[in-house]
Fold this sequence. Notes:
By secondary structure, the chain is of the alpha+beta class. 41% of the residues lie in helices and 17% in strands. It has a nine-stranded mixed sheet, with helices on both faces. Strands 17-16-34-33-32-31-30-29-28 form a nine-stranded antiparallel sheet, with helices on both faces. Strands 3-2-4-13-5-11 form a six-stranded antiparallel sheet.
Amino acid sequence: MGTKTQPQLAKENERRIRANDKEFNAQFKYHNNYIKTSKYSLFTFLPFNLLEQFQRLANFYFLCLLVLQLIPAISSLTPVTTAIPLIGVLTLTAVKDAYDDIQRHLSDSQVNNRKSKTLRNGKLVEAKWSEVQVGDVIRLDNNQFVAADTLLLSTSEPNGLCFIETAELDGETNLKAKQCLTETIELGDRHDSLWNFNGEIICERPNNLLNKFDGTLIWRGQRFALDNEKILLRGCVLRNTQWCYGVVVFAGVDTKLMQNSGKTQFKSTGVDRLLNFIIIGIVLFLVSICALFAIGCAVWEGFIGQHFQLYLPWENIIPKEYIPTGATVIGLLVFFSYAIVLNTVVPISLYVSVEVIRFVQSFLINWDEEMYYATTNTYAKARTTTLNEELGQIQYIFSDKTGTLTQNIMTFNKCSINGRSYGDVIDLRTGELIEITEQQTIFQNSNTNNRPSPAGGASIAPPAAAPPPIILVHKAEVHAKKSSLVVTATGEAQVASTPVSPRSELEHPASATESVERQHKGLKQVRYSAPSRSQDDEPGGLSPQSRLSGGGGLSPPIINEERRSSGGFKRSGAGFVQRQLSRTSSCDKALQSVDFSANPHHEREFRWYDRTLLDAVRSDEEHSHVFFRLLALCHTVMAETVDGKLEYQAQSPDEAALVSAARNFGFVFRTRTPNSITIEVMGQMEEYELLNILDFNNVRKRMSVILRRGDSVVLYCKGADNVIYDRLHGGQEDLKARTQDHLNKFAGEGLRTLALAERRLTEQYYNDWRSRQQEAALSMDSREQKLNEIYEEIESDMQLVGVTAIEDKLQDGVPKSIANLQNAGIKIWVLTGDKQETAINIGYSCQLLTDELADVFIVDGNSVEEVEKQLRQFKESIKIYNRFRPGGMDPFDRMNSDSNMDPMSVTMTQTSAFMQETNLPPTPPPPPAISVVTFSAECNDLFGDEKRSEDGGTASIVIDENTGFALVVNGHSLVHCLSPELENKFLDIASQCKAVICCRVTPLQKALVVELIKRAKNAVTLAIGDGANDVSMIKAAHIGVGISGQEGLQAVLSSDYSIAQFRYLERLLLVHGRWSYYRMCKFLRYFFYKNFAFTLCHCWYSLFCGFSAQTVFDPMFISVYNLFYTSLPVLALGVFEQDVSDKNSLEFPRLYTPGLKSELFNIREFIYSVLHGAFTSLVLFLIPYGVYKDGVSANGFIVSDHMTLGAVVATILIVDNTAQISLYTSYWTVVNHVTIWGSLIWYFVLDYFYNYVIGGPYVGSLTQAMKDLTFWVTMLITVMALVAPVLAYKFYLLDVYPSLSDKIRQKSLKKIHSRASSDVRRTASSRRGRRSVRSGYAFAHQEGFGRLITSGKIMHKLPQDFAFPLGLGTKKTQALHNNLNSADGPASKTNNVSGQHMANNNTNLRQNQNQNHSSMADITADGRMMGGENGRGSGGTDDMSPRAPCQDLDTINL
Length: 1454
């Protein structure tokens, strides 16, 4: 054994690359940057495709039959009968495969031909991506994709920094910082220096670890360590960096993106797999029948046939000397003859028909206007034609989060400042929240009243030319009672349908507010159109000041003395409203949100509808100023000016939304240096010295900044509410309780919440703390622990400022879609790269998680032992819960076996605290440790069931199929969960949970989870995503769906189906998927029936022909039976059939259930079709045989010949097929009529043409038979005998065991539409009863920017260039700028009244909560009630956290 060469050794252990040295790199034969996903070339297509097709069992089976038919001694049929269909199938499939591969070639070509700037011979040349080689130095410009995995050498930014977006890799759109080696920064963009760079890189071999890179750079005799922070991965996009240079380390298939993409797997449907199994069974059945007939033939020839050789001579190849030998040879030949004759039991036309049906169904998906997304002009697209019916059998959906469920757009939605909530729009009449959407109806009031002045003081007369104020009218449905509500632009609201004047309430603002809060039970919806921001759209061209006072949007019903005195609420009666309602067509103007145009830095796209917050800011209210000043200062956002416009670059979209909100309210973050932050407050510049940034991480769950301005030092902190609450000083219990109510409300609405706090520091204390902090930072032992202790010390005794509530905007219709999919019995898992809090929060927003859940289990152990312990605890909790659940049988089975089942199950949560409030029948008492009993009350409104209780509910209680748990797994814990020793325990718990969320998972982990469910649960899976990080998951699942979103097209190119929005998945599955499965199953049942009825006639005839393989029918009839006579009707059935409409399919998700259980086509249904076909063939043959045996016509002609019998049986078979498919068809279209009745006529036309024009052997047989009455009577009797049992069975099922679709169809025919609206509405009040379920905290942020900011490395200026433009720290500046407390006086005076009313408001709100929601969440661990007479929650106590952890069931800590 010789020694290994250097290239061989390097290839095995490490990767060596030398920059700008092609000869050196060529010896290792590294892959180039060419990408190839196609399967064939022009020369390999035909052989490879044929080889692939003949690997399918059916195609190989028919090829063998064709070979047999070429042997004259055993074939009684011409080879054409098999050759034509086989060639047709192979051609059709080849064309489809060629089309798919051409699309892959085009995609590859598009990627490979992208341009990249590469250094060649010291010059920068433009080269294709495919031409980039390992070791090349390439240049990347801003907003350009990275061509290959590259080691960063130099950038346009100081300190060698650059920013990238990794959406294609991990789905996150927040920017990440990369930094090159300080030694290579000097290369800059000088091409000569870069070309002379000859560093040698020794690194790891290609792998799929996105967050890990180990390597060493050897240059100028020195070695430099390389890590992931210095590598740009293929698929990333360069952002906020003019240019950068790097040397290619991995190219093409070696890049981490391609390593994570997974292998393309051949996908087949469950129906395909069942068909393959059935075909094997049919072939075995065929072999056994042929063997039986071969034995029968040998026996007959041995005993009887030998005596008739004069009339039936044996073939020359048959030995005639010894009779038993000759009979045996004849039997052997007859075996193959019957194999050919009976092959139509599995005709190749079955596969042709299946392909055609799938092909057409794909076009029906592509053409569906209901799945067209006008915003991006995108239709749904079926990218494969072989998986349609699998869409109707999905059991598990694996979804990405960012960009799939959400739009990845954060908006500042609501907030709470000093115990007062802002952002809600409330109906004055009922106190119900009004949900703001995008449509509205506007009126103008001709009775112009006085408007409040901009200052909120005395009213002013309107200008003469000014039009009347705008009034909105919207329809709102509350508790199934509709009313028209009139809301004026100044915040007024009146009801059009009820002639009650609001005078009494308006004269007593406090009582009105109390009644509003007491009636706050639901969410009302008002639709707004997108407002225009131009001044021309303002009525009469109002000035900015008048616009700000008069057009500002809907305000909550908080009425202070200023507003009451200014006439802000008109006392007009219902008559005025009714007069205005008659003028709906006179105005189309849209209500505008609060106008921020007076702020020169406002953002046109920012929307805020509660004017009171802007009023508070502009009236110098102290607490609102502190709130927004904190938002403008406590962050790590970078500001830059682009084309004269201020733009922000944030590491997380949450931070961007908060800083943007502060900007629009007048607190504009302008710029930062490593030791200063400059903001503009209401037009005045304020500069702060940045002393420290205590950066965010996943353990701290908060970030703080310490600032100095003048003589005051202040700490601003924001973070998770439970973390902040634990660090507040005493004496603010009332504020904490009111803010806690708002937190619960915001979290209940699915908003991402952050708590804000501040602490004023003395100079002496800060200096002492600073010295200890520097000492800890320099410590070599337990540095992190010491720093955390130092941070804990200063982040204590803080004053609560308020709470922010950010909405990660869901895509439209996501909650409704998820609810419907879950109602259909599909389990939904979310696999995301985002952090845990973010994923949980979105889970609540989209109703994947609800507060009705018994518990949310969180698996976050770092070791196998920790994870196993958590799983064991969770399993015990589920066991205890199940032990005390009422009922004992499987709920799913009960719902399906109940003949009065209603698809609309109402899931309710009951606790011992309010059990007496319900009128439902009594249930077993709740267990001592668990108070939650989840059950489902089946309502029968749709079907008119008489068995109902006195209150209108049903008398039967059905246990909800889900145990009421959800599971959240972190990425590092998932590694252990997927290990062989824990995967069964993990699966056991996950399968009992309603929802599962996996966070911080890598692309490969997503695929592993999908593979685990496929393997262990044998379930049909669907994966949906929109980024390159979802490709491996999409390829691993049975069905891959790509969303053509903002993260590129990699997911779409790898998917089987593409849609534009997640909500279209509901229609794709519940309509197209269900229809496709229903149609395919019905098609297969009928197809097997008609073919067994046709083929088994030969079996019965063999009993009368000495098992000689003589056919009953004309050979031409056998050849074209499936091709011409019966193909089109069954194709029409497979393409157009539907049991219920698309609307009903969406309204009743339970219709999807049969597909989950494969009820419509399985072994039992197949056997039923076979037996039905066998019975039909027996009747079909025996009745005509009995009639025509020894038969004589009225004219004396003998009609008992073989040809007449064959023609009669064939004709009755076609008529019976027509009758049967007419009974099979539920949905008649023109195509169905044409194909069904046309095929019957076509039979007679073709038979006449073949026999009379071409001169077939059966010429005249059918014509003569039809002239006799015997034929018509025989046909009538036979068809009646075949149809009558089918009709009787159908009516029996319809009457005794009607399916859900039968019930819906019956009610649709009677035009009864009694189903309630299926819209899913999330109300804040529904969650207040379980306020301890979770924190609304979610912050998609990572550690890192704080350190870079304070070190100066992230700055556009170099450290020595920093200066304080406003003279920060000088006495002159201190004289010009007051300290941070200077604005407290006047603001507190002007806000007294408002604060009093707000306190009353919140107290009454909490009273209302405790009256309406006495649930388990209101009981503390020691059994005491949290809410007393005053309704105050436990948030004010110091010894107890106001927010309990997610595991709020007492059983977790039994």
